Amino acid sequence: MSEELNEELDGEDDIIEVLDMLSAAQEADKDQRELAREDEHFYYKEDGQWEPDVLQRFAGKPRYTFDKTTPIVDAIRGEILQSEFSIKLVAGVGKSSEENADLMMGIIRNIQNISGFKDITHQAATGALVTGQAGWRVTTAYVDEDSFDQDLMIELISNFNDRVWFDPAAERQDKSDANYCFVLQSLSCEDYEVMFPDAESYASVGDDISSNVYVNKPKVIIVGEYIYKKTKKKTLVMMDNGQVYEDSEDFKAIKDELEAAGVKEARRRVKDDIVVCTRFFNGQEWLGDSNETVFDFINVIPVYGEYVISENKSVWHGKIRKLKDQQRVYNYARSRQIEEIALSPRAKWMVTGEQIEGFEEEFARMNTSVSPVQRYVHVDGQPPPFQAGGALPNPALDNACAAMSQDIIETGGGFAANLGNNPNAQSGVAIRQLQNKGDTSTVKYFNNLGIAITHTARILVKAIKKIYDTERQIRILSEDNSSEIKTINQQIFDQQSQRMITVNDLTQGQYDVICSYGAAFQNRQQESVAALIEIAQVDPSVIQLGKDILLKNTNAPSMDILSERARAQMLQQGIIPESQMTDEEKQAAQQKAQQSQQNAQQDPNVMAAQALVMEAQAKMKGADNQAQKVQYDAQIQMAKVGIDQEKSQFDMMMEKLDKQAAILQAFFDGQKTQAETKKIMVDTAITGSQAIQNLEQQDREIAQTDAMIDNSMQQM
After folding, report:
1. Is residue 636 in a domain?
2. What is the pLDDT of residues 304-322, one digit of tens each?
3. Whether residues 586 and 666 fall in one domain
4. What is the residue range of 376's domain?
């Protein structure tokens, strides 16, 4: 704890001031606390439904209690018990994300689970219905004795009405605007000495410290806890790269490195930071120093039955408050009816002695006999036996009982019409009907409980950033109570950005809290199964796509096992997309793929099979090449045939030319004619020689092609 905070609250005058603040808070709420104690007495204590002065008047008389209020309270409690309050976090501004919102929501569910929060809310709801107020608090606890890691917990504050007082100036129903709060607790002398070994007195809170009573050693000591807000100044520094740091020793340690890297300070500002502190005290002195908590709000959360601000003052009460008068009048009227019946004379048979002669025993047993006839002796001139007298009903009492019974029903919100016979309560239908109808006589209790739960979630969200600020493994809980282990605030190297990043960073971002209530999760499971079956009647393929969901939501033994098997099968079949896989399933799928690849590379059978495949592929390739060679050979042979034909034709042409030359020689005798004839023959010979050369060049190209094909076949 800082010296500044301790100096603020040190000194004898300070403890007196705090005790005065407690007295002022108690005085401001005194009348409501007395009424709340009366309501509690009315509901729980024997003869609580009778006023003390009326009890005195009924001393020695019939006095009965016909409780019509408890079933009404129980009916509302039953509706709350069958409902479920759901919290959802929505990513807001800053470094927030939907993934971290889901992660943080899983942490909150786990905190609620290990704290038994469902039972806490039910007990608090009962207290709010009876006395008008109840509540709980959020605390911290070390994971174990050897760890510095802490977890958050939620604890019920029993006897809230006599233990907790808020800042009288606070007006919000959740008391989020309260600047301080007092929580009192009773300790045995032994526990007191263990918790506060340096205490100098045994003075209880509320004792007169001007006397010497505090030096005595009582059996029970009342100790107070002062929970209050303190404003601290915090300097924020923004660098020119957009990063924001708190001006602390840690920042000063890295500032030089940032500047060396070219990151300069852009600007700074001072902000007010709220921190909640706590300090214990007795009726005379402080019991230790002040301690800072991880909370930004007062960590005590009230639950009210009905709550309004009237004449600048918080006014609250429960369901009992408005039912007490009718119930007391009803008890009184019914008891008076019974008293009058008990004291009224019975109707008697009017007979003469002659008329019952011989039937005396039958007439004596008339009040107890079930005989359908009664015999008597007829006497002439006398009327038969007849009854006279007896009690007459008091119409005033009858009317009073009927009126009070109806008043109780109307004041109770009509619950008496279905008390103990509400088939819709378990399905959550009643809850939705109340919401739709806007039945303020009941829905307001749900809403007020939801306000407390919402504020609790806000406190947890802010505290989680401080408690879970290091790399550690934590358990998160899903809506269906399945759990998994997550690593938070993990530093990893990002290949893309080439820098260290934090995965599952819960220390950053803002999150908004939304609370809703409705049917319990078990009932929603049943509704999910019914809806899935109904859809499957139209599209049967839905069953295959969602059989794991169907089995999981079926409330029957071993369905969870079948659901796991179905999901495993669906994962193997590739029905479940990667986006819907859990982290464990994604990791398992990756490991399986890697293992399969590795096994395929190492398995000799697989390698032999791969060799056979490669050989077959090579043969197929060789066959293709052989076919190509045959095709090339055919083309070459055809080319050779064509060349041979052209050569034969050329020889025949040369033979004809020779004959033509001989004929020309015979015809022409002159030299000139001979010369010309020879010249023609020479020209023709040159043309034929060129043709032969062309044919020989084609033969050489064909031979080169054959050599290339043979070489390719040898390489294959």
Report:
1. yes
2. 999 998 888 889 999 999 8
3. no
4. 345-390
Alpha-carbon gap, residue 520 to 81, rounded angstroms = 9
Beta carbons within 8 Å of 577's beta carbon, 6+ residues apart:
none
How many domains would you assign to the chain? 4
If one counts every other C-beta atom within 10 angstroms of the C-beta of residue 143, the result is 12
Residue 239 in any domain: the answer is: no
| Residues 572 and 620 grouped into a single domain | no
Asked whether the predicted pLDDT for residue 4 surpasses 50, the reply is: no
Between CA 151 and CA 568 the distance in angstroms is: 34
Is the same domain home to 546 and 578?
Answer: yes
One-letter amino acid at 56 equals Q
* Spatial separation of the C-alpha atoms in residues 332 and 311, rounded to whole Å: 35
Categorise residue 11: left if φ over 0, alpha if ψ from -120 to 50, beta otherwise.
left
Residue 421 structure tokens: 């016979």
Q: Is 693 exposed, middle or buried, given 0-12, 13-18 or 19+ CB atoms closer than 10 A?
A: exposed
Query: Distance of alpha carbon 671 from its chain centroid, rounded?
Result: 125
The predicted-structure confidence for 684-715, as pLDDT tens digits, reads as follows 444 455 555 655 665 576 566 556 545 544 54
Tell me whether residue 280 is in a domain. Answer: no
564 and 628 in a single domain? The answer is no
Mark whether 584 and 644 lie in a shared domain.
no
Residue 275 lies in a domain: no
Q: Helix, strand, coil proportions of the chain in percent (round to 5)?
A: 55, 20, 30
pLDDT tens for 163-190 read 999 999 999 999 999 999 999 999 999 9
